[in-house]
Amino acid sequence: MDETAIHKQLDSDSSAVKFVGYIDVGVDVDDKAGLPVVNKALVFMVVSLTESSKITVGYFLTARLHGAKHANLLNCVSRNCT
């Protein structure tokens, strides 16, 4: 698991008539206006024990995410990878 800061920006997608840049943790929300704008990417990777390779298995676009929510996302990813 690695968390990295990304540029905070809200853009409009004219083809879909919507704004993009809000948080996305895998749950579809109809009214995104109340959601915070993304400023971090939380990336989950599987790392090889015998070779120098790693594979991204999922990522979440977040803002202000703390301990318990990190643990919840980790549990979701680990359940789906086994």
Itemize the secondary structure elements and their pairings.
Blueprint lengths: L1 E4 L5 E3 L4 E3 L19 E8 L6 E9 L4 H15 L1
Antiparallel strand pairs: 1-4, 2-3, 4-5
What is the arithmetic mean of pLDDT? 77
SSE class = alpha+beta
Strand order of the largest sheet: 1-4-5
Unreliably modeled segments: none
Radius of gyration, taken over Cα atoms and rounded to an integer in Å: 15 Å
Rough outline: elongated
Order of helices and strands: EEEEEH
Number of helices: 1
In percent, how helical is the residue content? 10-25%
Concise synopsis of the structure shown:
The protein has about 80 residues and is of the alpha+beta class. It is about 20% helix and about 35% strand.
Keywords:
82 residues, alpha+beta, 1 helix
What does this molecule look like?
By secondary structure, this protein is α+β, with helices and mostly antiparallel strands. It has one domain. The protein has one helix and five strands, in the order βββββα. It has one helix at 67-81, and strands spanning 2-5, 11-13, 18-20, 40-47, 54-62. Strands 1-4-5 form a three-stranded antiparallel beta sheet, covered by helices on one side. It has a two-stranded antiparallel ribbon with strand order 2-3. The radius of gyration is 15 Å and the shape is elongated.
